[in-house]
Amino acid sequence: MALKILDSCINCDMCDPECPNEAITLGAKVYEINVDKCTECIGHYEKPTCVSVCPIDCVKPDAENVESEDDLLTKFINLHG
Ligand code: SF4
Ligand code: SF4
């Protein structure tokens, strides 16, 4: 599934430059993840890099956007060819 940034985000800008899919942008209040671009870092890293770099652990699974590993891999291929 795609990941979601909680409202507790402190806009520290650590995650945005680390996302290999450019899925993270600053929203109206806090950073947001584009579900069409987030692959949970499948194809790039072993685990979500935004989760690894977030200092306050506010990036969580998005229960409203559940996807299988195959779905995420297909998304990766569609994004990067
Ligand atoms: S899990 Fe990976 S692809 Fe998804 S938003 Fe975080 S860094 Fe980007
Ligand atoms: S690393 Fe965490 S606190 Fe910092 S901008 Fe990203 S989600 Fe927000």
From TrEMBL:
<feature type="domain" description="4Fe-4S ferredoxin-type">
    <location>
        <begin position="1"/>
        <end position="29"/>
    </location>
</feature>
<dbReference type="GO" id="GO:0051536">
    <property type="term" value="F:iron-sulfur cluster binding"/>
</dbReference>
<keyword id="KW-0411">Iron-sulfur</keyword>
<dbReference type="InterPro" id="IPR047927">
    <property type="entry name" value="YfhL-like"/>
</dbReference>
<dbReference type="InterPro" id="IPR017896">
    <property type="entry name" value="4Fe4S_Fe-S-bd"/>
</dbReference>
<dbReference type="InterPro" id="IPR017900">
    <property type="entry name" value="4Fe4S_Fe_S_CS"/>
</dbReference>
<dbReference type="Pfam" id="PF13237">
    <property type="entry name" value="Fer4_10"/>
</dbReference>
<feature type="domain" description="4Fe-4S ferredoxin-type">
    <location>
        <begin position="31"/>
        <end position="64"/>
    </location>
</feature>
<dbReference type="GO" id="GO:0046872">
    <property type="term" value="F:metal ion binding"/>
</dbReference>
<keyword id="KW-0408">Iron</keyword>
<protein>
    <submittedName>
        <fullName>4Fe-4S ferredoxin, iron-sulpur binding domain-containing protein</fullName>
    </submittedName>
</protein>
<keyword id="KW-0479">Metal-binding</keyword>
